[in-house]
Design brief:
With 249 residues, the chain is mainly alpha-helical. The chain is built from 9 helices and 2 strands; from the N terminus they run αββαααααααα. Helix content is 68%, strand content 3%. Pfam families: Cytochrom_B561 (PF03188).
């Protein structure tokens, strides 16, 4: 028979004497959520946040472009349709071309990303010329004034900046001797990268303006879709920015 004293001792005794199998957390190690590490009862889980941000950018750009192409394919064909079709390609390629450089770390990754970037921006260059030609010709044939709306004015500015940005980038990469050699050209990459973010912002701003045009709203009046796509790209792009690559001295 167990004595009352022993019973009291047993009650006061902890149920688990050895908790060595439980996860141990050090109070001297702060939890850091910015590096993609999250603590769980079984340990820490590491997330590749660069990949997560890249996915956000890709899904957002694809959502926007595919919605535009859906609209274009759902109406009776006329020449104007080529304008939003090509400009959606501009948005998709320009966005992807910028995002691919963000996650490159090793030399091999940087070389591969640069090749992909050049391909995407080449498509952007050709598409923006085609899209601009279509809208200019369409308005000229209809005896309509050019660049009267905010969308038209921002479109013209964005068109010119894309041309300048593409030519400047191509010069730095393919003809570094123009700026004094490869070393000086690499030193100017940060300026090209910074201006690239500005151009990308204008691309999206102009595209969002186009979604509020009367013709677009008559075919697809769901603002939340456009804002969702833009929001995903905004979060992914800002999250993927490496401040070290933007240092301008």
């Amino acid at each position: 028979m167990v004595s009352p004293k022993n019973s009291e001792d047993n009650i006061a005794q902890p149920l688990i004497e050895n908790n060595s199998f439980l996860p141990q957390y050090s109070s001297t190690e702060p939890t850091n959520f910015t590096d993609g590490s999250v603590l769980t009862p079984t340990g820490s889980i590491n997330f590749n946040m660069s990949f997560v941000f890249s996915l956000l950018v890709s899904f957002g750009a694809l959502l926007f472009a595919s919605t535009v192409w859906y609209i274009a394919s759902s109406v009776d064909y006329f020449f104007f349709i080529w304008h939003p079709t090509l400009m959606a390609m501009v948005l998709l390629m320009a966005t992807q071309g910028s995002a691919v450089l963000q996650k490159a770390e090793s030399r091999q990754e940087k070389d591969a990303s640069l090749n992909f970037h050049k391909l995407m921006q080449s498509i952007t260059f050709l598409s923006v010329i085609g899209g601009f030609y279509v809208i200019y010709t369409f308005k000229a044939e209809g005896n309509k004034e050019h660049f009267t709306s905010p969308h038209g004015k921002s479109g013209l500015i964005t068109f010119l900046l894309i041309l300048i940005q593409t030519i400047a980038g191509s010069t730095l990469v393919n003809f570094p001797g123009v700026v004094g050699g490869a070393a000086k050209a690499r030193g100017m990459y940060k300026y090209h990268r910074t201006s690239g973010y500005l151009v990308l912002f204008l691309v999206w701003l102009t595209a969002l303006g186009g979604t509020q045009a009367d013709w677009t709203k008559s075919q697809f009046d769901h603002l939340w879709v456009w804002l969702l796509a833009a929001g995903m790209v905004l979060v992914g792009t800002i999250g993927g920015i490496n401040s070290n690559k933007l240092k301008v001295r």
